[in-house]
Amino acid sequence: MKKVFISFFVVAVALLFSNLSSISNAAEKVTEMKIASPFGNVTTNGYTPEWMANELRRRGLADGRLDVKCYSNAQLGGELELFNKLKAGAIHLTVNSFQVMSGFDDKAALGLLPFLFDTDEKAEKFLNSPMVEEVSKSLESQGVKNLGYLKFGRFCMSGRKPIKTPEDLKGIKIRIAESPVPLAIFKALGIQATPTPWAEAYEALKRGIVDGIDMAIEPVWGTRMYEVVKYCSQTSHVYGFNFVFVNKKWFESLPGDVQEFISDTVQDVSLMERIVVLRREQQAIKDFQRKGITVIPLTAQEKMPFIKAALPVHKQYLDRIGRDLVKRTYDLVNFPYAKDVL
C-alpha cells in the first residue's frame, strides 16, 4: 500500500510540473518582428527581406515566439526612410546599401572604393573578412546591428549611348545613388552625376532627365530598365553590397536563443541570395542581348583610363575610412594599385 501511495505521489508531482510548464510556455511572450524592404520584389535583394520572413516562418518562428510581419515593395519607404524607421524602432529589420550608409559613416565607403573588387571571388572574400566586420561594428553607433550581407553585383553604366572611355561620359547626365562616394567617383571621371532615388530612375530615363544610370546589371534587368536603355557598358567600377540591419536595442532585448535563431536564418538566406544574384546576372546579360540591348564588355586595358581617373577617390577616403583598414583590405584582395594610394 505504501509503495502504491509513493508511486501515485510521484506521478501527481510529475503531472503538476508538466502542467505548470505548459502554462508557462503558453504565457511566454510573443515578440512582433516587422521586416521591410526598401526595394521592389523584382530584384533579388529587393525580394530577400520577404524571403527571410518566409524562412523564419518555415523554421517555426523560434518555437512560436516571433510574430513576423513583412512589408515588401518599398511599402513603408525607400532606404533612407526605412533606416530612420529602423533606428526609431518602428521596424525591426531592413536592408541598406553601402552607398547610403557611407553618408552616415565614412567606414562604409570601404565597400565602394572604385575598382577594388574586380571579381566576384574578391567580393565574397571581403564579405567574409574581419575588415567588413569592422565597418559593421562602427555602424552600431547608429543604433543598428548587422546580421548579414547581400550582393547586387558589379556596376555597369547603362543608357542611350555606349561608354568605352571616360571621354564618352562628357555631356552625359548619369543617375547615381544618393550617396557621397558615387558622386566623388563620377566627379573624378569628369562629370557631375545626378543623385536620384532608385524608385525614380526609370521615369528619369524615360523622360530624358538623365541619359544613363549607374547600377549593377541584375537590378537594371529586374526593373525593366532595358525598355529605356540601348547600351550596357560593363565597367565594373563598383561592387554593390547591402547590409541586413536589425534595431540593436530590440534585438539585444530578445532571449539569446531567439537572437541566434534570427541571426542563423538571416545568414543562411544571405548566403543563398549572393549565389542567386550572380546566376541572375548571367541570365540578365543574355536577356539584354535577346532584347537588342548592346552589352559592351570592357577589357582590362580598356578599364585602365577609368581606373587612373578614379584612384584619387581612394586617396580622398583613405584617412576618412582609416589607413590601416584600407591597407588590410588592399592586401586581402591584392589590389594592384595600392602603392599609388598609400
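the 2nd protein, sequnce then structure:
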Amino acid sequence: MVDLTELPGMPDSIRILLREGGVESAELLASLETGEILARLDEAQRRRGLETRETGETRRPAIELIRVWQKTAREVLGRRVEAPVSEAKEVSAESLKAAGIGLDVIPVAEVVEAPPPERPDPPRTAPSAARLQLEDSLPVALPPPSAGPGPGVEESGAGGRSRVAFEEVPGMAGSETPDPDRAALAREEEQLRCPVAFKPLEEAPAVAVKGERRNRGMSHPEAGLVRWSATVTVLAFLCSFFATVGMMVVGVMAAFFDVAFHWSVALVLLVIPVCLFVYVTQGTKARCRLCGQRLFVPKNCRKHERAARSIFGHTFAVARSAMFRANFRCMLCGTKMRLKD
C-alpha cells in the first residue's frame, strides 16, 4: 500500500480529512469516484466542526483538484508496478551461519541433487553368428586326382583336362539362398542412414476433396430488382454511347464533307438526358447485401482486386454480369452473390 504522504502536491490538512473519511491509501483514492471523495471530506469536516457558521456549509476542494490528486496517485502506483524486482542470488552456508541463521529454520521441501550424467549408447555391433559367417570362409573339399571324374568333375574332352564344378554352399558369394541375419543387418543400416524418405510438396499429386462444390455466393433477397437495375444501367450506357458517337459522325460529315441532314437528326441528342434520368431513377436502387453500397453507381475509390473489369469501367462490367449471368461480384467489397437458387 502507498501512503498519502507519498503523493506530491496534496496539503496536510486534506490528508488528515481523507484519513478521517476512511481514505488511507493511494489505491483507495484512485479507485473512488469524485463525488464519494467529496462526501467523505464533508463528513470529516462536520465531525471536526469546520463548517461555516452562517450557512452551515463546508469548504470543499474543487473537483478538478481531486481529479489531479487521483491522477497523481495512479502515476505513483504505476511507477511502483514498473519498478524492477531484485533478482534472487545464491547465498552460501557460511554467510548464513555468519548472519546467525540456521539451516534448520529455512523451509526447504527437499534437497535436490544434480542428476547423474547420461551414459552414451554402446555402438551397434553385428551379431556373433553373422560376424562369424562374414569373416570365416568355409572349406571346400576337392575330389582325389586318382579317382575318376566324380559328380562334381566334368571332363573337357581330348586334352584330358578336367574341370571342377563347385556346388553352391549356403552363405557364400553367388549363393541364391538369402541369409536372414545379413538381410536384417542391411535393413537396419539402411534405416539408420536414411530413417524417413521425404517427398517435396511440389512433386505430390493434387488431391481433390470429395464432395467439394463450387462457391456460388450468397443469395440476394432482391434478385429481380438487381437484374432490372443492371439491365437499365447497361441499356442506358449503350444508348448514350451510340447517340454520342452518332452525333459526332454527323457533325464531322456535315462540317468536312458538306453532307446535308434533316433537322430531325438533332432529336438524337434527347436520348442522352432521357437515359440519364432513367438510370438515376431505376439503375441506382440495387444495393450490396454485405456492404450496403449501391451496386451500379461508379465511385472514385479503389475497387476490389477480384471485381469484374471491362473497357467501359467496373460499373458496366458488374451490371453486365448481373444482367446475363446467375451470379456476380460486388466491385467494392468483392462479395459473390447469386440471383438464382
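The two ends are 67 Å apart (CA to CA). Residues 218-338 form one domain.
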